[in-house]
Every structure is written in C-alpha cells, then in structure tokens.
Amino acid sequence: MEFAEILKGVESEGKENHLPVIDVDKEQGIVHVVVGKEKPHPNTMEHRISWIEVFGVKNDGRIVCIGRGAFAAAYTSPDVYFKVPLKEFKALCALSYCNVHGLWQNCIELV
Ligand SMILES: [Fe+2]
Asked: Which structural domain range is residue 62 located in?
C-alpha cells in the first residue's frame, strides 16, 4: 500500500466538509487553514477533526512542515493561522484528520 492511497480529496467529499481549505494573505504572509468553512464539521468526542498540518513546497522543491494545529474535542474548532514568508514557497498543502472519516488533503499554488 502507498501512503497516497489513504489520502482523500475533494472527489471523496460527502455531505460533511473535511477538506482543509487554504486561504492566504500574501501581503501579511498569513496562511489560514480551516475545515468546514462553509458548513462546520461535527465537533464531538465521537466525531471530530483532531488535527491539521500544513506543508510548504519551496521554490527549489524542498518541503517544509509549516505547522500543526491539534484540537480539543468538543471545544476547539479546526481553524488555524500561521505567519509564513510566502515568497519562499510555490505551493501550500494541508492535511486534516477526522477520527471517523480519515485523512484529507488539499493544495494550492501560490504563483
Ligand atoms: Fe468526519
């Protein structure tokens, strides 16, 4: 099995939102990643987004782990901000983990 086989993307999305949606403010160098932007994902002990991780693809192709947000079940919404020198990156990718529905991915190009 390949790791990529367990990653789900927009094509797997059902009635709940799992994709980590990435927004950037290039002027301020802010990366905002949220799951459930349009419709909140459940946030209970039984069903929740446990964490979000964000990776940057540098202009030379190297990958940088930008950061991780871990969320308290039933308390903290899966919504994180990072301050990033965006000019060094050509793309950003994010992972989100739902304890029921697995691992989700999304990427954006910055150029
Ligand atoms: Fe879920």
From this structure: 3-109
